[in-house]
Amino acid sequence: MRNVYPLHFFLGANSPSGFVSFSDELTAFSEEGRLFVIKGGPGTGKSTMMRAAAQALSGPEPEFEYIHCSSDPESLDAVIFPKSGVVLADATPPHVIEPQHPGACETVVNLCACWDEEALQRRRPEILSLCRQNAACHQQCVRFLSAAHSLLSDNTSIALACTDTAKIARTAANIIGRECRRRRGESVERRRLLSAVTPQGNVGLTETLAGFSRIYYVKDPYGAASNLLMAALRALLMECGVTLYSCFCPLSPYGKLDHILVPELELAFVTGSRAFPLEMLPEPYRVVSFSRFTDMEALARRRQRLRFNRRAAGEILDAAARSLRRAKGIHDLIEAEYAAAVDFAAVEELSGRTIRTALECVQGCGVRAAEQ
Within a 10 A sphere around the Cβ of 157, how many other Cβ atoms? Predict the structure, then answer.
């Protein structure tokens, strides 16, 4: 079996209802493993620490996850080592994490101790002004996302009325019957986002799919058949005793499932979109078209409305990305304010201690596993 790791995901993103986060997925690891809760301001070295930890810990545990920041995909929000339960996470707004069992299950890594607070106090007016500007850009982005979601939901409703739901259920059963035999034990589901609206546009973390040998690519410009198919596949996989990653749509993060990954089987189900165009992905094992389940003649009678909604939504999503680009520029200025007050030698020393402790946790998990 080929190595499909590391996996790349988002865990939070702007949505039509504001910023949403699956950060509770991180705290779920803490009771069995160790959650390193990193506190500090922007530009104080949190992402750099997590990248260094990923490099150090991936030797003994190569099956891990990078969690990217949707406001800056080059930056990290967390790194997750699922087998040992070791997680390092940025615990600052908007993805706040508070330790529930500090010391026993969570370790607080306090980068705030590495800055000159008096220097930051002197820059209070400038920092507050920049933070307000940044928040306004994100609020504008959310309004754009709400408008785009309304248009795209109209298309989904139109297409749903033309969709053969029974045929979708049969297709899902046939696929899982071929691909996955039932195993002992219960399935484990991990909720993630594989795409997000970012300053670079609607970005899909396509590198996550590089090691998957069996990719089912679902072509569906309206989101009705694909959502029903993904929901049916998920329900069947939950009965198979596997670990699956359920990746939700950032415009409907609690209702619409876009992708499902099963790394242990190198099996992936991917919904095509602007973030996941077919030409940008590994060659799929199967392409499943929405037309297979859709009354295309009935759908054609609504063609003009469908096209208008898609075109208008696309323009609005581009406007949302522009709002985030402005927010990113402002955030860079906030980072510069904080970086000027940080003792990075102290950050590096604290980072080194934290990574050594995390490495001991990963190695200790490997020893326990060998003993069992």
Answer: 12
d(CA 111, CA 343): 10
Nearest to 240 by CA among 179, 154, 327: 179
Q: What does the block give as tokens for 75?
A: 């930056």
Q: What is the mean pLDDT of residues 100-113?
A: 94
- Cis ω on the peptide bond leading into residue 6 (within 30° of 0)? yes
* Distance separating alpha carbons of residues 23 and 70, to the nearest angstrom: 14
> Are 284 and 122 spatial neighbours (Cβ–Cβ below 8 Å)?
no
The rounded distance, in Å, linking the Cα atoms of 176 and 265 is 12
2: Cβ contacts below 8 Å, ≥ 6 apart:
211, 213, 266
Contact of 298 with 101, CB cutoff 8 Å: no
CA torsion angle 37 38 41 47 (round to 10):
-130
11: which DSSP letter?
S
Q: Is the pLDDT score of 182 beyond 90?
A: no
Could you give the percent of the chain with pLDDT greater than 70? Answer: 98
In angstroms, the first-to-last Cα distance of the chain is 24
Query: Mean pLDDT, the chain, as a whole number?
Result: 95
What pLDDT score does 2 carry?
A: 62
The pTM of this model reads 0.95
